[in-house]
Amino acid sequence: MRILLIEDDNSVADYIIKGLKESGYQVEHAADGKSGLVKATTEEFDALIVDRMLPNVDGLTIIQTLRASNNNTPALILSALGEVDDRVKGLKAGGDDYLTKPFAFAELLARIEVVLRRQETGSAVTRLKVADLEMDLLAHKVTRGGVVFNLQPREYKLLEYLMRHAGQVVTRTMLLENVWDYHFDPQTNVIDVHISRLRQKIDKGFDQPLLNTVRGAGYMLDVPQ
Amino acid sequence: MFLSKIFTSFTFRFLVGYVAWLSVSVFMVLGVIYAFIAYDSFSDVHRSVNQELDELSAAYLSGGVESADTFIREHSGPERLIRFFYFIGDENRQRITGSLEQWPATETYRDGWLGFDLQDALSTIKDPVNTEFIARIKTLPSGEQVLVARHYADILTSTKLVAGALIQSMVVTIILGTLGGAVATALSLRQIERINKTVRHIMSGDFSERIDGKGSRGDLRQLSININQMLDRIEVLMNGVRQVSDNIAHDLRTPLTRLRNRLSELYNETACPDAQGEVAALIEEADGLLGTFSALLRITQVESGNRRSGFADIDLCTLVSDVIELYEPLAQDKDQQLETGMAKVGAFHGDRNLLFQAVANLVDNAIKYTPEGGRVFVGLSVEPAAFKISVADSGVGIPAGDKEKVFQRFFRVESSRGKQPGNGLGLSLVQAVVRLHEGEISLEDNHPGLRVVIRLPRDTTPVV
């Protein structure tokens, strides 16, 4: 997997490059908008990470230019301007996700993986399965080892999102954005409470816990190694 | 409403003052005109009476009674425009000849003028005239007295008529002037009201708006142009400030990212559980710092009012229900009763994420400051002019003296300081969001506890 990082702050760039390489990605780096745009148009990448504020050409212009020339490489926008307007502008310009600085690296990694995965899955899925946990998307039925769970609509949505991204870390903000569909900053650990309720239902009484907390990052639905 | 606006407006009072001044001027001018007219008719009367008197005297002197009679007959015919009455008497004013039967009972006025009422004197002429006549006498060298009188009432009537017309036109001037003033005021009020509306809109944060000066002309147009130019200038300055705050955000948050990331790196690399716990605590500290920092920046951004581009028609009912649904488990964990009173309301034009944040902050506070087993109520209802969202709890409430202060940034009620987590920015953000939506927020006593009421105006559709 090749990722192009367009970021002018060398220290942030070094950190992202280091983290991505450790996670098994190949990373190209461009330190300003102009060279970034040239690289993005002349070479093939699996994903782009683009800072919004860049010297010469700004991040949104780069993505708009690429989209205008039918280049649909998934792009994650990084920005210090964490406001909804900017977020909307970023997504309208053709960005696939938007991440506000400061972010934990785990958040970036989680989002990059989701963005890459989005590109792969094309066909409609009707069943989701993680270990012995199964979700029938058509019948809205969730079972584990033959036990049928009675889930509230939001719990169902939460579990569906976790199952769709099984094996990936999902962060609290990702859950708020995608399950609750609001972009806001909760003052309390309100998401944790919902997760622990879901955990009560799907993990209680089973030997293998599937819904795990990833410290300093978020949650992951997976079979622990 | 509009009428009272007209009467209290500066333009109207100015115009009324102007009409009053104009009326005084017109009154003076008309007075002068009247004086001229009156003087003219009086001098005409004087001249004609004197002339008749001279002619009659001359006729009497040259041809005696006979030629005087001829003169009188010629001059008293009904075809004459002005009717004169003549009398010639001896020195004792006994009648020699004339169109009057006897010497009238005259009163003497200045300059040798006489006046009298003539009913009995006019025995031969059955005239309904019963008014004042004026007369002049001349004593001939031979002792006879010649009197010429003229009907004076018509002059008086005509001058009265003129005076009446003048006064009536004055009254009409005042009435029409005031009415015209009201109409002119209404017209200018409409223009000014339009400017006001736009200015109010801009004050609430939509800085892209400008006053449409096309419909107006002259000074109002100039005013619109000036206001627009002032707004352009303010916008440039505000963008400058925003640029600076964006730069601060960029420049400060980036090193904070580095700090946080290095700490989490350290956390992953450390094997020692004690050190891990310490680093985890440091990460939490850093996250708290970052949280405060972004909350502060968010308030600044919301207050700068550039957020209206995120506005859309939203369903408050769904929004409030979503907040309740999100926070219900939190209340249940504290054994609190989370009650709701939801009314179906129409669409509201606003920013859903910010409103969600605002209501979430209130519900979060309510749950946080209400002891276990307490009650929290979230309600949505419709008022004639507003959508009302209220969040009430049975907690400790806020002391009356602190109610104004809790909206200040970083202010925390003394009793909660150190006991409850928080940065003292939650309500500031709520207030900023409410203001952005041109709404009002108030804190009320819930006996016990606190009730926060947000009123969002039902019509916030921007002026197109």
Q: What's the helix and strand layout?
A:
The complex is a heterodimer of chains A (225) and B (464).
Chain A: E1 2-6, H1 10-22, E2 26-30, H2 33-42, E3 47-51, H3 59-68, E4 75-79, H4 84-92, E5 97-100, H5 105-120, E6 127-130, E7 133-136, E8 141-144, E9 147-149, H6 153-164, E10 170-171, H7 172-180, H8 190-202, E11 211-214, E12 218-221
Chain B: H1 2-8, H2 10-75, E1 84-89, E2 95-98, E3 107-108, E4 113-117, E5 132-139, E6 145-151, H3 153-203, H4 218-269, H5 273-303, E7 312-315, H6 316-333, E8 337-342, E9 347-350, H7 352-369, E10 375-382, E11 386-393, H8 426-436, E12 440-445, E13 450-457
Parallel strand pairs in B: 8-10
Antiparallel strand pairs in B: 1-2, 1-6, 3-4, 4-5, 5-6, 7-9, 10-11, 11-13, 12-13
Helix pairs in contact in B: 1-3, 2-3, 4-5, 5-8, 6-7, 7-8
Domain Response regulatory (chain A): 2-116
Modified residues (4-aspartylphosphate) (chain A): 51
Pfam family, one (chain A): Response_reg
Write a compact overview of the structure shown:
With 225 residues, chain A is α/β, with parallel strands linked by helices. Chain A contains eight helices and twelve strands. In chain A, helix 2 (33-42) packs parallel to helix 3 and helix 6 crosses helix 7.
Description:
The complex is a heterodimer of chains A (225) and B (464). Chain A is an alpha/beta fold and 225 residues long. Chain A has two domains: 2-120, Rossmann fold, CATH 3.40.50.2300; 127-221, Winged helix-like DNA-binding domain superfamily/Winged helix DNA-binding domain (Arc Repressor Mutant, subunit A), CATH 1.10.10. Helix content of chain A is 41%, strand content 22%. Chain A is built from eight helices and twelve strands. Chain A has helices at residues 10-22, 33-42, 59-68, 84-92, 105-120, 153-164, 172-180, 190-202; strands at 2-6, 26-30, 47-51, 75-79, 97-100, 127-130, 133-136, 141-144, 147-149, 170-171, 211-214, 218-221. Chain A is elongated. The model of chain A has no long low-confidence stretch (mean pLDDT 87). With 464 residues, chain B is an alpha+beta fold. Chain B folds into three domains: 2-157, 2-Layer Sandwich (Beta-Lactamase), CATH 3.30.450; 218-303; 308-457, 2-Layer Sandwich (Heat Shock Protein 90). Helices cover 55% and strands 16% of the residues of chain B. Chain B is built from eight helices and 13 strands. Chain B has helices at 2-8, 10-75, 153-203, 218-269, 273-303, 316-333, 352-369, 426-436, and strands at 84-89, 95-98, 107-108, 113-117, 132-139, 145-151, 312-315, 337-342, 347-350, 375-382, 386-393, 440-445, 450-457. In chain B, the strands form three sheets. A six-stranded antiparallel sheet of chain B has the order 2-1-6-5-4-3. Chain B has a five-stranded mixed sheet with strand order 8-10-11-13-12. In chain B, strands 7-9 form a two-stranded antiparallel ribbon. In chain B, β12 and β13 (450-457) form a beta hairpin. In chain B, α1 crosses α3 and α2 (10-75) packs antiparallel against α3. Chain B is rod-shaped and about 155 Å long. The chains are: A alpha/beta (225), B alpha+beta (464). At the A-B interface, α1, α4 and α8 of A face α4, α5, α6 and α7 of B.
